[in-house]
Amino acid sequence: MKKLSIIMFAFTITMLACKQEHPDSEFKPIQVKYPHTKQDTIVEDYFGQKIPDPYRWLEDDNSPETKAWVVEENKVTDEYLSQIPFQENIRKRLEKIWNYEKYSSPFKEGDYYYYFKNDGLQNQSVLYQSQGIKDEGTVFIDPNKFSEDGTTSLGGMEFNNDGKYLAYAISEGGSDWRKVFVMDVNTKELLNDKLEWVKFSSLAWRQDGFYYSRYPQPKGGDELSSKNEFHSLYYHKLGTSQADDQLIYVDKENPLRNVYATTSEDERFVIISTSESTSGNGLYFIDTEKDANKIVPVITDFNNDYNFIDNEGDELLVLTNDNAPLERLVMINTNNPSKETWTDIIPESKDALKGISLVGGKIFANYIHDASSLIKVFDSKGKFIQDLALPGIGTSGGVNGKKSDDTGFYSFTSFIRPNTIYSLNAENLNSEVFREPKVDFDSDAYETKQVWYSSKDGTKVPMFLTMKKGLKIDGERPTLLYGYGGFDISILPSFSISRLPILENDGIYAVANIRGGGEFGKEWHEAGTKERKQNVFDDFIAAAEKLIADGYTSSDRLAIQGGSNGGLLVGACMTQRPDLFKVAFPAVGVLDMLRYHKFTIGWAWAGDYGKSEDEEAFNYLIKYSPLQNIKPEKYPATLVTTADHDDRVVPAHSFKFIAELQKNQQGTNPTLIRIETSAGHGAGKPTSKQIEEAADILSFMFFNMNVRYPE
Fold first, then answer.
1. Nearest of 427, 400, 425, 426 to residue 411 by alpha carbon
2. Among residues 279, 460, 468, 497, which one has the least CA distance to residue 371?
3. For labeling, which of 380, 460, 461, 685 is most exposed (least CB within 10 Å)?
4. Three-state secondary structure call for residue 708
5. Could you tell me which of 576, 567, 561, 572 has the C-alpha nearest to residue 533?
6. With 0-12 CB in 10 A as exposed, 13-18 as middle and 19+ as buried, what is 537?
7. Which of 510, 670, 688, 658 is nearest to 22 (CA)?
């Protein structure tokens, strides 16, 4: 883990010696000396309640004081981790199993096929181009050459309709900010076009240009923390300056709204989506055959979700949960788009419908059935044909292809099976393996099973358990419990190299499909939002209790992990039930629920959380906000992870949380923070940094559980 390179300032260190809580531990305790973190006297008044905020100064990540504090905290963490006797063994094992070829599904644009490939340990996957679908391709774009350390990544791309031009975005240091460039496909040369301050944007081609979304340029050097306002939709014409781009849409009266655009495959329609939060969107369209400057509203509120699929002549095919919590596919006539005229193509069913693909004249509908993928095939009018035969319980990304293609591709993965690519004959619906990775891991020696348990209020919740076949269930298995529980995001089975050392070391990997996610549709999501957010934590705590009650593990051998909203989950559960867990990993977490919305895009999460300026919302936020609920207590061994370029969930959340935790820790478990440099919220993180972080997390977990990792 690299250090931040800054000028060091005088810094007083308070020595707080601590030893790990290892009854009869075979490991030598590691001494920890925490940095002194100064406290301010800031107190906020929330509806008559005085809430201190002593570490607010850490919100300024550009200040010399904060930078010095970061260096000191990283130094303590590095020294601790370096003394774990098997850390290097874990790193070497991860590097070995990580080193296999990884492919994406191929896709055709213009005269060429394209696919992504990573040779094994490359920091970024490479885009290849080939003449034929089975031909070995040549390098088209190598993001590893964007920067010397591999921290600049490809952040989105889109070919124009005839495949002659490619617009692509790059992310530097993991930031959500993007720079956009345009390449001539035949010559592989960049045009002069360059766009900046692009964020949360699609790239939607039409004719000789494309639509994109951006914010005004931030002022004062605080682009990684300042609030994002006045998201605007522009059209860029090739060969012109960004300053000359045409403004298509901005809501000057509502600065906290986002806007996105996509175009139909025939480029007749421009579909505009507006949003105030992560759920619910407005829907508009431009019919360029009638009036290229007229924006026609279809939906102007944000009560439901509307995802444009494509058009059939005058009609728009849209996936929506409007009057269908589990979603349905509807056709909207642009000549009269009122709801009364909508027709169902695929009605709502008993499973959550999460994606639609149009390939070879058929509709492939991607459902979630009990937190696993199910693909149903329909004809173009919505008549059911058959289920697509998948290899087992796992996750498919849906069928990839275009309406006119006679062959599609889909991926399939599970907790014990790496991502495998299948080709699909769109006519007879026969599949065959197209690319299957070879990993130094015996998948056949492991199994995944699904169990159901009751949450605090009696709600039945599913959980996946992955372990060795025939594993001895003795209440002492080292177990990692993972969850998310928010924003309608479904946590489905997936292959993760960083979990394999747990399984190989006679451990268990558990994933709880808790409320707040999208596994069972809109109602399941909403049951974990706002004043109902405690349901999410109750579900996760009940999952931990289930693992212990059924004899899989014990509180001394149980770790919990989650990132972003999942970091909030871990922070809330470890402060509510510190006795239940031995180790906690809150990653890039939303941990200060009173101020989350004051930074970057945080305001958009209010649909799930609510805002502290509202008294009703404050009254439930203050009850679970991890930062404000730390008190003198024996907390689990905790390794907070964040990154200096995270402009999604700013690192101040993690900074303030660990400072408060270190002050209040009454037990001898370590409470540390790992602050990655030149990295962001997670997307685009180079392989080398992923391996380093995973090795640190796993060694911290095993060591604090008093579990040895073999040579």
1. 400
2. 460
3. 460
4. coil
5. 572
6. buried
7. 670
Choose the catalytic residue: 396, 564, 625, 654.
564
692: helix, coil or strand? helix
pLDDT number for residue 1: 37
Mean per-residue pLDDT, 665-689: 85
Measured in degrees and rounded to the nearest 5, phi and psi for residue 281 equal: -150, 150
Query: 583-587 and 637-643: which strand pairing?
Result: parallel
pLDDT over 60 (residue 83): yes
CB-based burial label for 474 (10 Å; 0-12, 13-18, 19+): exposed
Q: Of all helices (H) and strands (E), which one includes residue 143? A: none
In order of 137, 408, 686, the CA distances from 145 in angstroms are 18, 31, 12
Over residues 524-537, the pLDDT tens digits come to 999 999 999 999 99
Pairing of strands 479-482, 558-563: parallel
Contact (Cβ atoms closer than 8 angstroms) between residue 255 and residue 236: no
Q: Could you tell me if 546 and 513 are in contact, meaning their C-beta atoms sit under 8 angstroms apart?
A: no
pLDDT-wise least confident of 83-92, 213-222, 659-668: 213-222
588: left (phi over 0), alpha (psi -120 to 50) or beta: left
Which pair of tokens denotes residue 35?
């940095």
The DSSP string of 87-133 is HHHHHHHHHHHH-S-EEPPPEEETTEEEEEEE-SS-SS-EEEEESST
pLDDT at 150: 85
pLDDT value at 23 more than 70: no
For the chain, report the end-to-end CA distance as a whole number of angstroms.
Answer: 22
pLDDT score at 347: 98
Output the six-digit token pair for 37.
């973190």
For the ranges 8-17, 311-320, 327-336, 689-698, which has the lowest average pLDDT? Answer: 8-17
Q: What number is the average pLDDT over the span 633-657?
A: 90
Q: What average pLDDT does this structure show over 366-381? A: 97
| Kind plus residue range of the DSSP H or E element containing 615 | helix 615-624
653 a catalytic residue: no
Angle value at C-alpha 367, between 366 and 372, nearest 5 degrees:
110
Please list, in sequence order, all residues whose beta carbon lies within 8 angstroms of the beta carbon of residue 508, skipping any fewer than 6 positions away.
465, 466, 467, 471, 477, 478, 479, 480, 502, 547, 552, 553
**Residue from 556, 559, 507, 505 nearest 711 by CA:** 505
Place of tokens 């007229």: 294
Could you confirm whether 564 is annotated as catalytic?
yes
- Judge contact between 654 and 586, C-beta under 8 A: yes
C-alpha span between 11 and 269 (Å, rounded): 60
Sign of CA dihedral 59, 62, 68, 70: positive
Q: Token pair for residue 401?
A: 């292809």
503 burial type by CB count under 10 A (0-12 exposed, 13-18 middle, 19+ buried): buried
pLDDT per residue as tens digits for the range 101-151: 999 999 999 999 999 999 999 999 999 999 999 899 999 999 999 998 888
